[in-house]
Write a structure and sequence with these properties.
Elements lengths: L1 H40 L8 H9 L7 E7 L4 E4 L14 H7 L4 E6 L4 E11 L2 E12 H51 L14 H50 L4 H33 L6 E4 H18 L3 E5 L5 E4 L1 H17 L6 E8 L3 E8 L6 H4 L11 H6 L6 H11 L3 E6 L5 E8 L9
Parallel strand pairs: 7-9
Antiparallel strand pairs: 1-2, 1-5, 3-4, 4-5, 6-8, 9-10, 10-12, 11-12
Helix pairs in contact: 1-4, 4-5, 5-6, 6-11, 7-8, 8-11
Length: 455
């Protein structure tokens, strides 16, 4: 509104002034041209007199609206178109006439509110001497009234336009404020913990796009809050079980007299539960690290040395459960990743393959190169995973066989850690049934040339 008011104010001041100035300039030029026309008519006369001047001036049709005075060289008026009440035969002491008799042209225009007065005077020169002067006076009321009417119309048009601008601006401000108020109310509700609030997605303007972005943010926050609550609930449940076991075992030792062997057995169970808590805490810390730590710089990693180290570390556990570990990986197989993450991924998958295998089973770690990708398969001959469970095995704390998982010391976090690490290294992971029963996990990573591989 301020900008519009400033523009309209400038228009009301500048336009009339400019129009008056242009009109006055045009009127002055017109009067001067008329004076020059009269002067040219007498340029061949050696002397001026009243008998010859009158008929010449009266024959010029363009001079009917102007008062015309013609004087001799002594400033005596020889002709006055005013007629009765004129100054014919008298000396004329007008400043413009005096200026003309001195050999100068004079033009004066005065613009009043209802009248434009134009004066022009020019010397009449014949045979290189001044023989008289011409003086014109023209009053133009129509032009002045036209300018005044135009100024008045601009003023009222500006007033109407400003009123319209004020009304539109107020309506727009009210509508915009109401929509922004809903947004602020939703933000306050979200700040209070209500992530279910949504804004109506109407229109295509900036506020509507802001509402769409707000709804997407609210949905993500709601999903994050649900995941957080589920995570806290599952973590609390997982921590509660070993803590309850430790509490029960320690109370039994304190409240009962028992022999040395029984006490040693109870203490051993307490140690096992403490180890289970340690493993769970380590996995929770690893998940926190993956969620908060920025991705490391990826580099070229040779798969064979990392896979060989994983199998060497897990070989004692495999021998204990009579599981055979096999490795089939080309020496030039290399991926773009971080070595530590690749080691942790393969370690978790092979360890799961050992824990959930059958007696005398087998775990195969197989790597193959495609033109753009490297495929790494970890396949076991265990009991397999039901199809209905495969879509959820990467969820945190989710376990297919809860009883067996607890017995094996699992908390449902290993595959979730693997999944997050694979994604962080620009890879993908999928699960399917193995060729000889059991489960196959397939990893795909960006491939690099074998000659770039380094352990």
């Amino acid at each position: 509104m301020l900008i519009t008011s400033a523009v309209l104010l400038f228009l009301n001041i500048y336009a009339p002034i400019t129009i008056r100035k242009l009109t006055c300039t045009a009127q002055g030029s017109a009067v001067k041209d008329k004076a020059r026309l009269i002067v040219s008519a007498f340029s061949s006369y050696e002397k001026l007199d009243g008998e010859t001047v009158g008929p010449v001036v009266q024959s010029m049709s363009d001079l009917h609206n102007a008062r015309v005075l013609v004087t001799d060289a002594g400033a005596r008026c020889l002709y006055d178109s005013l007629g009765v009440g004129g100054v014919a035969g008298k000396l004329v002491f007008y400043p413009e006439v005096a200026e003309a008799l001195e050999g100068n042209d004079a033009v004066h225009v005065r613009c009043e509110e209802t009248l434009i007065i134009s004066k022009a005077s020019m010397p009449i020169v014949a045979y290189n001497r001044i023989i008289g002067a011409v003086y014109l006076l023209e009053r133009n009321g129509n032009q002045a009234q036209l300018i005044t009417s135009l100024q008045r119309n601009i003023f009222w048009l500006s007033v109407g336009l400003e009123i319209a601008v004020v009304i539109v601006s107020v309506l727009f401000a009210l509508i915009f404020s109401r929509r922004m108020g809903k947004l602020f109310d939703s933000v306050r509700k979200m700040h209070g913990g209500d992530y279910s609030v949504r804004l109506p997605e109407r229109g295509r303007d900036e506020v509507a796009r802001l509402g769409v972005a707000f709804n997407e943010l609210a949905q993500r926050l709601n999903q994050s809050e649900e995941v957080r609550k589920q995570f806290v609930s599952n973590a609390s449940h997982e921590l509660k079980t070993p803590l309850a076991s430790i509490k029960l075992l320690s109370d039994s030792i304190l409240q009962n007299d028992m022999d040395q062997g029984t006490m040693r057995e109870f203490v051993s169970d307490i140690g096992s539960e403490a180890d289970r808590l340690t493993r769970l805490s380590a996995k929770l810390l690893e998940l926190t690290r993956l969620d908060t730590k920025p991705p490391e710089t990826l580099s070229t990693v040779a798969v064979l040395p990392v896979a060989d180290r994983v199998l060497r570390m897990l070989n004692p556990l495999a021998r204990k459960q009579n599981i055979r570990l096999d490795l089939d990986c080309p020496a030039d197989c290399a991926i773009t990743a971080t070595a530590d993450d690749l080691y942790q991924i393969l370690f978790n998958l092979v360890e799961n393959g050992i824990k959930y295998n059958v007696e005398g089973g087998r775990v195969l770690l197989l790597a193959r190169t495609d033109p753009d990708l490297v495929r790494i398969d970890v396949e076991d001959t265990g009991m397999g995973i039901p199809d209905i469970e495969k879509s959820r095995i990467f969820e945190r704390f989710y376990r297919v066989d809860k009883a067996r998982s607890r017995k094996a010391g699992g908390a449902g976090l290993g595959l979730s850690i693997v999944h997050d690490m694979v994604l962080r290294n620009r890879g993908s992971i999928e699960v399917s049934d193995g060729e000889n029963g059991g489960t196959r996990f397939r990893l795909c990573f960006p491939r690099v040339g074998g000659e770039e591989a380094q352990s």
